[in-house]
Design brief:
about 45% strand, OB fold (Dihydrolipoamide Acetyltransferase, E2P), single chain, 6-stranded antiparallel beta sheet, about 20% helix, about 140 residues, alpha+beta
Length: about 140
Amino acid sequence: MTRLSLKPFKNKLVMVTGRVEKVYYKNILDKDHTMKENVKILLKEVKISGIDIDHIWLLERNKQYDIAHELINQRVKFKALVEPYYKVNKQNNLFVQDYGIKRKSRLISEKYYMSQFQFNCREKKLLSNIDFNIEDFLY
């Protein structure tokens, strides 16, 4: 699908899953500046809140390079904000609105995310069976 299908999620927080295909520095000369947005990450087979998208690019800070490079060819899951941006249409040189994402949580593998989520669900089930009042512990 096209990115225009992200229009209903404009300025909203969404869950993103995808496979890390490529990680590289946009400008190799700036790789020592940790806070500069210089790392490009290509995600393939992307699913954004249930909508399938072929690919999407992330532009991250240099300190994310090592983290993303370890996750190449793995499925990742994270929260992101859908943001509109303008690009130039090559056919008639007009500005066209398109939609991209800005990462808002850590870039972690989907397996790790699911194991943490299942742990939290089990923990909530165990705690939901406990029935006591604070008065039971007072003398």
